[in-house]
Amino acid sequence: MKIKNICCIGAGYVGGPTMAVIAQKCPEINVTVVDINENRIAAWNDQDVENIPIYEPGLSKIVEEAKDRNLFFSTDVDAAIDKADMIFISVNTPTKTYGIGKGMAADLKYIELCARQIARVSTTDKIVVEKSTLPVRTAEALKNILDNTGNGVNFQILSNPEFLAEGTAVDDLLNPDRVLIGGDIDTDKGRDAVQALVDVYSHWVERDNILTTNVWSSELSKLTANAFLAQRVSSINAMSELCEKTGADVNEVAKAVGMDSRIGSKFLKSSVGFGGSCFQKDILNLVYIAKSFGLNEVADYWEQVIIMNDHQKRRFASNIVKTLFNTVSGKKIALLGWAFKKDTNDTRESAAIYVADYLLNEQAEIVVYDPKVKKEQVYADLDYLNSRSEKENRQRVSVVNDPYTCTKDSHAVAVMTEWDEFKELDWKKIYNEMLKPAFLFDGRRLLERDTKEEIGFEFYAIGS
Ligand SMILES: NC(=O)C1=CN([C@@H]2O[C@H](COP(=O)(O)OP(=O)(O)OC[C@H]3O[C@@H](n4cnc5c(N)ncnc54)[C@H](O)[C@@H]3O)[C@@H](O)[C@H]2O)C=CC1
Ligand SMILES: O=C(O)[C@H]1O[C@H](OP(=O)(O)OP(=O)(O)OC[C@H]2O[C@@H](n3ccc(=O)[nH]c3=O)[C@H](O)[C@@H]2O)[C@H](O)[C@@H](O)[C@@H]1O
């Protein structure tokens, strides 16, 4: 079957970029991205394409090309569902904050609401695609809801997890290592549905890079990929602590082990800890699933990746306190970067939030500069932790628009995000305007030690 109309529920970091690329590459398919968040949809529809709600290099150009041609953003979810032959569900699946599985399991309430809405509205057959990251066997629950509350139409369910990373979303979508499609390959209708989605991606992805599997393998592969990736970061971060004690340098160790082709060089960059909306959530979900099958050793193995990551964030913050003569009370600490990685305005689970919180608990004054993160977001992130009153967060944390205002008169500067522009700053000027001794903590291994020490900084970098 040929797909003519696609609907995507969820206009977030995945739904927005993914659908923009599908629309750009498949001009004959109408793509409508819907969301209940009116502000988000309004921002996608802003006349000035630079105001789209997600910052991703290259994205605004693609949106500009496809928008109002065959790419549409709307809050009319029912209408888009009704019209579509294929519906992607790309809503958030955060960690549960209540009830059974609190703090571990994925909260599937948004997914279930989508399924019920699709069932209620649909009057023609639909292919429903799980784009969100979901626990293995979620498709079974979706099918159950769709078949039992629907209008007798046929629903085929596919799993098509997304592997894009923020900051490189457009490139990842245009040149994916692989596209994974799980479907009911034992039935004709299931195979047809898989083929329909293969045909969409075949517009720009080599057929050999489009992998088809059964639904459960596809669902579990996504959790596995994120767990493996995060595990590499925790592994190198574990070594970074040992490097600091032994005189080894974690960059040299990473290079040496990464040149072994069985290990590979990517994703071995030591840091203040991984952030982002997914690694922690997906691993906790994996741990929960393993525990629910009684696989305690499997659960403990993966949980250690999170324990190590929490340790790394805490260790970085406590090292700042220790180095500043065991107290940061009343001292001004400048944080360069708040996003969880460079080239994104996303701050979810960013290490900077936890480091700031730790330092605030030690009564530090925090000043933040990030080229893409808005002031309100910084406060919202801190407020969410509930460590102190909202008023106090605003009294003790300031967010500024300029790196030199951020670092001026500070006791210490900490690089939290690896934004390229931080490498190019006038570090001599920063040094001159700081209190002495001028402490510089590099949580990203972004800066060169020699030049900074020459200027006069007391320089500390993760893993050396
Ligand atoms: N952020 C990322 O880089 C990646 C995320 N994922 C997965 O993709 C899924 C979505 O993630 P993000 O796009 O980051 O989330 P997001 O929070 O940016 O976007 C989700 C959107 O869904 C909307 N939504 C929720 N319920 C809705 C409903 N019933 N009807 C209409 N809209 C609804 C929300 O308003 C929100 O705008 C998650 O499962 C995540 O694990 C997968 C790969 C990469
Ligand atoms: O499911 C998801 O949400 C996505 O999660 C990650 O993508 P993302 O979180 O956007 O970004 P990453 O590049 O993976 O970085 C995650 C965190 O790890 C950190 N990191 C990454 C790599 C590294 O070597 N060292 C390191 O500290 C980053 O700074 C960042 O805080 C995966 O890379 C994507 O494949 C996946 O689709």
TrEMBL record:
Keyword NAD: yes
Keyword flag Oxidoreductase: yes
Keywords: NAD, Oxidoreductase
Reactions performed catalytically: UDP-alpha-D-glucose + 2 NAD(+) + H2O = UDP-alpha-D-glucuronate + 2 NADH + 3 H(+)
Sequence ranges assigned to domain UDP-glucose/GDP-mannose dehydrogenase C-terminal in this UniProt record: 334-449
GO BP term (any one): glycosaminoglycan biosynthetic process
Superkingdom: Bacteria
Record field: transmembrane: none
EC number(s) reported in the record: 1.1.1.22
Family of the protein in this entry: Belongs to the UDP-glucose/GDP-mannose dehydrogenase family.
Function: Catalyzes the conversion of UDP-glucose into UDP-glucuronate, one of the precursors of teichuronic acid.
PANTHER family membership: UDP-GLUCOSE 6-DEHYDROGENASE, UDP-GLUCOSE DEHYDROGENASE/UDP-MANNAC DEHYDROGENASE
Full protein name: UDP-glucose 6-dehydrogenase
Organism encoding this protein: Christiangramia salexigens
